[in-house]
Specification:
2 copies of one chain form a homodimer. Chain A is of the alpha/beta class. Chain A is built from 12 helices and 8 strands. Chains A and B meet through helix 4, helix 5, strand 3, helix 6 and helix 8 of A and helix 4, helix 5, strand 3, helix 6 and helix 8 of B.
């Protein structure tokens, strides 16, 4: 199928080239709302979100709203999120909805439709998704992403210590037998991307914590990825301690697709300081990235 | 901590005794909306949801709205869902929000707050949740459920074939080493419930497909559960082929807590036939259950 829309991977490569890899989290949890002097309400998350969009536009290229902090205010919170998503896209930012949805059949298809269909009220450029029911269960949103010029980031290895028992568990049968769950997911995603028409990156990416030793998850970061490499949404930079200097060491052959995701370290600059904090950090990340190449 | 609210497990036992185990899915996917003569829109899912609530009230005890089908209409869809949830709870139905959320830290806490906090716009009696980031990652919503008289159903073994590679993968280290992922989740949930004050069932339940051979997931259905057994949300009855007659064979020692979840087989009766279909099926399930005891 020839797509008339630009593929997500090509758009992402454009953002990397023009504005770098920094992704600013939009995480209006109660504590941050309070320290920003905003009410813990739908109007508070709306103001917070719009302020982060304003501070990021022109200074970095990507934002990642955490959906949970909007959803807790129900329909009013979602009305706020619709405004934030629209403002971010209108400002030319690439928007990754951090939704971590997952299901099967028509339900997971509806989640794809929610976040990835052009014209949907909650349209983003990409979303995060969990495949606890198997990568096969999310094939419909994977295909939707590919055909609609959208991206999907599948959780593979995450930074919280309690995740290890599942993500390092070993698959017992089928084509991924002997692989860890994290590696099996990576292989499933890679094989999906490889079967699509050629883009700078695949439409389906991975969530890999930047503070992890990926080798301990059975992930082979030396493996050559030749076509449509999966982009990597990598939380853990900044406040959580991962360093952009270590990007090549941590991510190996996946390094070129890494999105440097930071939230707390930037957001704690407050509404008055955020634009400067984003500009400074975005320049730092670009300089470190230039030095790496 | 002494709770002033009735525990979810005690409320569930009350529903089982008074109105049986049937749970009616509220799944307004596009195809069903069309066959019901409703628009594929927020107002369509609102009408559909309210009609299922009306048809179920007084005939069965539990409803399970699939959140994805409301979320795809954004804030308007969530306004519809708020109405459906409120109507269901006002009608005395126990409401399980089929949300399959999951995340870590303040994000997963916000999801718990969204669906389980008394007074929240999207308040339900219980929600489904995924623990791809480990059962430890969802401890905050587990504690919230326990303290607020709410329930949580954690995905463990699901019926779609692509789920096997992850759910049957074997944990390599830690206290659950040697267990499958599905079994490790069940043990974590059981151990959480056991540490709480005594209820008819634990506040934290499991999602286990009714069409599965649970033994093939390494799940020991003969294991005695002494305190606060996890209730089981079991999709797969009716249209998907599982039979209530087989409940004891499939679920063994978990049988007493099984919620018989049906969607398509009932919903395809259409708006005119649904109330009768629910009444008939609810009576059947109660009769089969009485015969089993």
């Amino acid at each position: 199928m020839t797509s008339v829309v630009a593929a997500f991977g090509d758009r992402l490569a454009g953002v990397f080239a023009d504005r770098g890899r920094l992704c600013v989290g939009i995480d209006p949890h109660s504590h941050l709302l309070e320290s920003w002097g905003l009410p813990v309400s739908a109007s508070g998350v709306r103001e917070f979100g719009l302020a982060v969009v304003d501070a990021t536009a022109g200074r970095a290229g990507i934002v990642k709203p955490q959906v949970a902090f909007f959803e807790r205010f129900g329909a009013a919170g979602y009305a706020a999120l619709e405004e934030v998503l629209a403002a971010a896209r209108a400002a030319g930012l690439l928007v990754i909805a951090d939704a971590k949805r997952g299901d099967i059949g028509t339900s997971v298809a509806a989640y794809g439709e929610t976040w990835l269909t052009p014209g949907s009220p909650l349209e983003a450029d990409a979303m995060t998704i969990a495949a606890f029911q198997g990568v096969g269960s999310i094939e419909e949103p994977m295909r939707l992403a590919e055909s609609a010029g959208k991206g999907l980031f599948v959780l593979a290895a995450t930074s919280n210590p309690e995740a290890e028992s599942i993500q390092k568990a070993v698959v017992q049968s089928g084509p991924r037998a002997g692989r860890t769950v994290a590696r099996a997911i990576i292989e499933d995603v890679t094989s999906f991307n490889r079967a699509q028409s050629l883009h700078a990156f695949g439409s389906v990416g991975l969530v890999l914590g930047a503070t992890l030793d990926l080798g301990s998850f059975g992930i082979d970061t030396a493996a050559r990825v030749e076509l449509n490499a999966a982009p990597v949404l990598a939380p853990g930079f900044g406040h959580q301690g991962a360093k952009v200097q270590d990007l090549a060491r941590v991510f190996g052959s996946l390094s070129d697709g890494v999105i440097v995701s930071e939230s707390r370290g930037l957001l704690q600059a407050g509404p008055a300081g955020l634009a400067d904090a984003v500009a400074k950090r975005s320049d730092e990340v670009r300089a470190l990235e230039a030095a790496r190449r």
